């Protein structure tokens, strides 16, 4: 069992909390049974998993997951409770913390349906909002989420946590705005920009075809270039003093309108 904070592996875990280390090593942290289980199911390579058995909530489930990680070549390492709490991002940790390898993805290999349905999250600053967008995108059945001109990386531990592991259940990729715009134009995918300044309501436009929903940063919204290049702009009606919703809430509303139009829901 690892008991010292001076252990090289513990120091490595601390470094992986920094975006520079995640970018350099192409590794990231995943905390929690549900999140790690979804990472394993999504094909993420788990290199190490640190386990604190006294914090397990459902010992049978956690043990089964650890066995699966070992079966796939990952290393399971017991960790003292005091160290685990020191490393944890949670108020009530459940005793599992893993190191995963970031998948390599390119635009040309985006899996999509006959009528592509994408989300483009541009310049999102808050990890919690980005994670919630990923969670809503998974629920609405999008083909992929593009994080354009990112202000926070998708492998931030708080993005993983807020997405409840939905980061691993769909195609998610960081890219530049210009590169992504060229990709969407080439494939004839309509760019739908969500902005409070649009004339049309999001319920008044056809969202049933190939679309990419563009949402922008919390403070400034979408870049002017993205607004100009959009095929259509939509807004959510605001009847109070607030001029906009939280970006994750707004994304969820438009996603479910698109889902309603694209599928006959009972």
Question: Mind explaining what this structure looks like?
Answer:
This protein has 266 residues and is an alpha/beta fold. The protein is 36% helix and 20% strand. The chain has 10 helices and 11 strands. The chain has helices at residues 8-15, 19-25, 33-41, 59-71, 81-87, 127-140, 157-162, 177-186, 224-229, 247-262, and strands at 27-31, 46-51, 75-78, 96-101, 117-122, 144-148, 171-175, 190-194, 200-201, 211-215, 232-235. Strand 5, helix 6 and strand 6 (144-148) form a beta-alpha-beta unit. Helix 3 (33-41) runs parallel beside helix 4 and helix 6 (127-140) packs parallel to helix 10. It starts with 7 loop residues before the first helix and ends with a helix.
Short description:
This protein has 266 residues and is of the alpha/beta class. Helix content is 36%, strand content 20%. It has a 7-stranded parallel beta sheet, sandwiched between helices. It has a 4-stranded mixed beta sheet with strand order 1-4-2-3.
